[in-house]
Specification:
The complex is a heterodimer of chains A (about 400) and B (about 80). In chain A, about 25% of the residues lie in helices and about 30% in strands. By secondary structure, chain A is α/β, with parallel strands linked by helices. Chain B starts with a strand and ends in a 13-residue tail after the last strand.
Chain lengths: ~400, ~80
């Protein structure tokens, strides 16, 4: 173990899944020095996937992540990091405190994109954190229609959850199918059919021209010439890596904080910054399947697995761990289990091997330059596992 | 020495992460139900621990060796 990390200890910025996972692995590997975690929310680490599902429409289920015994963490919650000084090896937080570190884990996640136009002050929501979910749930209980702006995974899940709780829902999506950028046309059409069969008002190839209401949201004018009256809106148009606090720090930031395949953060000159690692949604990192500047992923398993690598590389810089995963994610909508492995979004062709809307089953394989790079299935988890094994072999061969 | 593997099927939602991490221990049957070995050889520990950590609903538990088991008695 690197003895240089004792003293000022390790500072983890970000108190969510990736930050906590890094702490757990650091302790499992025997690190017994100071461990400080800064988080901008007042909450201890919690799990986000339930927030767009049952949590949104049911009672306040317990979403806290378990904290194993012996973590011995100095929590600094409700505090936002606002500047990193690599020379002084300190992070400044928003109450002016300077937190020193010997080793740094960057895990600040991502921030929901806001509606790009004028937005009523009340009733237009985003869904990223626990407090967002509680606010949206309260709004749904007041009754009225929910307008979902954006039919990516989050928007589709929110629509399905709200519909399941008896809320009338309209979804507006500029693309011709929901989730198209992630999984393509055929899978998107399958999801569209699910929404429409359930009775959700899905408007594809449509945009919201303006949101109406001052100060309280009452509806929206759409590009199809209609007006939708609604009691609440949720903006689900993606998220951006939370890197504002790294501006001017000397770290390379380009659509995420740039890492190598050991989860080590790179300086502007492209060399690894000493004892600085990162994990989760905030990172941009290289992958053999990804062209150009690499990937950013907002997946649950990416956060945990990259955090594992980050902790190992931080403690054992002479033998840094390698992060070269077969990515995976899931989405549950209308009782259908969607499972994705690999990187369907990078494909240049797709092969639909099963598409049975009545049985609610789907199996699509994705290829890039003739090689399998991903799969997306509905209610076909066994096949997903088989694809995953093939993808692991492909990746192993590609990486040599 | 074997370790015990337990999956809380009340929690399991067939995310498949345990199958991805340790396919020798966890798999899906013809009807897409998760099946797994009740005990696994010590040599599988790293993969099984990874499977437990990968489970999004924390349904996978790795127990201490079952002293009632004969060493090497894990199903193939």
């Amino acid at each position: 173990m690197s003895q240089g990390l004792q003293g000022a200890g390790i500072l983890v910025v970000g108190a969510s899944l990736a930050g906590l996972r890094a702490c757990v692995v650091l302790r499992e590997l025997g690190y017994d020095g100071r461990l400080t975690v800064v988080g901008d929310e007042p909450h201890l680490p919690y799990d986000r996937p339930p927030l767009s599902k049952g949590f949104l429409v049911n009672q306040d289920e317990d979403v806290r992540l378990p904290l194993p015994d012996g973590l011995d963490i100095d929590w600094r919650l409700g505090r936002r990091a606002r500047a990193l000084d690599l020379g002084a090896r300190t992070v400044e937080v928003d109450d002016g405190t300077l937190l020193p570190f010997a080793g740094l884990v960057i895990a600040t996640g991502s921030t929901a994109r806001r509606w790009p136009g004028p937005t009523p002050a009340v009733g237009v929501h985003v869904l990223r954190g626990l407090d967002d979910a509680r606010a949206l749930r309260t709004a749904l209980r007041r009754g009225g229609r929910l307008l979902v702006l954006g039919a990516g995974f989050l928007g589709s899940e929110v629509a399905a959850s709200a519909h399941g709780a008896g809320v009338p829902v309209t979804v507006v999506e500029p693309e011709p199918q929901p989730m198209r950028r992630a999984v393509g046309e055929a899978a998107g059409a399958f999801v569209a059919a699910l929404h429409r069969r359930a009775g959700v008002d899905l408007r594809t190839s449509t945009t919201a021209v303006s949101l109406i209401g001052d100060p309280t949201f009452t509806g929206a004018r759409l590009s199809d010439g209609t007006e939708v009256r609604a009691g609440a809106a949720v903006v689900a148009v993606g998220a951006a890596p939370s890197t504002d606090w790294l501006a001017g720090s000397g770290l390379r930031v380009a659509g995420g904080v740039v890492c190598d395949h050991h989860a080590r953060v790179l300086l502007e000159d492209g060399t690894p910054a000493p004892a600085v690692v990162a994990a989760g949604d905030v990172t941009r990192w290289p992958h053999p399947w990804a062209p150009g500047p690499g990937l950013t992923l907002g997946h649950w398993s990416h956060a945990t697995e990259q955090a594992d690598t980050a902790a190992r590389s931080l403690l054992r810089p002479q033998i840094p761990a390698v992060y070269r995963p077969v990515p995976s994610f899931w989405s549950d909508q209308y009782g259908v289990r969607f499972r994705s492995v690999g990187l369907p979004a990078l494909a240049d062709s797709a092969e639909v091997r099963e598409n049975d809307p009545d049985a609610r089953r789907l199996d699509v394989a994705y290829y890039r330059q003739g090689r399998l790079v991903g799969a997306f299935t509905a209610n076909r988890v066994g096949r997903t596992a088989a694809y995953r094994a093939r993808l692991a072999t492909e990746l192993h061969e590609l990486a040599g | 020495m074997n370790m015990r593997v337990h999956v809380d099927m009340e929690l399991c939602q067939s995310h498949g992460q345990c199958v991805f991490a340790a396919p020798a221990v966890f798999s899906f049957d013809e009807d897409d139900n998760l099946v797994h070995q009740e005990t696994a050889a010590e040599s599988m520990r790293e993969a099984v621990v990874r499977a437990a950590a990968a489970c999004p609903v924390r349904a996978v538990h790795v127990g201490p060796p079952d002293e009632g088991d004969v060493s090497g008695g894990a199903a193939a």
